[in-house]
Here is the input.
Amino acid sequence: MKILHTADLHLGKRLNKASRLDEQTALIKELSKLADAENVDVVLIAGDIFDASVPPSEAERVFYRGMLTLAERGRAVVALAGNHDDERRMCAAKPLADLQGIVLAGELDYSALGGETLSDPAPPPSLYALADAADYLQKQRIKIYGKLGGVTVVKGDEKCDIALVPYPSESRLSRWYDQDYNVQYSDRVKQTLEKACDFFQPDNYKILCTHLFLTKSEASDALGGLVALPLSVLPQSPDYIALGHVHKRFRISKAPLAEYCGSPLQYAYDESRNKSVNIIDTVKRTVTQAVLSSGKKLYEADATSADECIAKLDEHAGEYVRIRYGGEPLGKDDALRIKSHPAFNDLVVTATAGADNAVERRAHLTDGEIFDLYYKYRRNDAPSVELKSAFIQLMGELKNEADQT
Ligand SMILES: [Mn+2]
Here is the structure.
């Protein structure tokens, strides 16, 4: 069996004023083509399906249409709720999704999911002619059985257990089962992950799919609502842990094998332009990357005159450009000329000649200084020394990991 692991679609996310929905639609088509070419049986999306808890209706349309596209050729699709998703809203269409072999994963108990229904699926959406529908039914070979903790996917003799744990916020944990608040959050997450893996059968290939912010450090800390958890929360039983949340691809743990696949589109200027998905072969027991090409790339360019701005924008025609402008104040006409260029996305003034109050760019600051600014912005206070050093350590680890892989 082959599993495609992706995450962090952030449907509806904009880059400043630019909508990314066309790119997100193209991305889903690329994923579907890749799944065809690689004979993928299950598409696993490890959280942050949407960018906002109440996504724009256009983004929901891309989602629903996109899930059907991914489910073509009888593939199973699993969409797990991340920290950006409102799982109740995301799973509202569950009764319809179940019939299509699309698992909308926003809870811990999937035992209500009927294998019976899915073993005898309806023909696919009316995109195909009747002959194609017959072909589809022949190719329909995946059955999904809901369990407490996740699903078992069956293809002939091959079986794969997939434990599904949406981003375990405190409110979600308390909805899933009674919490003992004398036990630390990280320990309760650990217990929850173990609980989800309880249904694993020794002979099946075992995957845990979840959305977490993990750190190699043993200290867990809350950072602006984001909780970094130690690797010790991970159970040992899975053959592969499919993670979402970090937009850069990297292997955070070798035993158990745990990987962030990274976001499939470039969403920030300081994010890598190389995007891929992971393909897991449950028979060969391999994890490989398949490179993605969808979506525009983001570039930053320095300029000190209007003409130089236009030249830099021309250089990256068809992409997104953020200009770091360090010249004389721009006149109205020049500003309009720059802003109406199709590649223009953003302009930040780094320093204006003759002005004293040069605006410092974030890129020139250390991680600690950026954290100070962020903390002051959110809490109007300075962070504690412990918290700040935990943040710096975490950033160091993330950068190291990203460099190594
Ligand atoms: Mn996330």
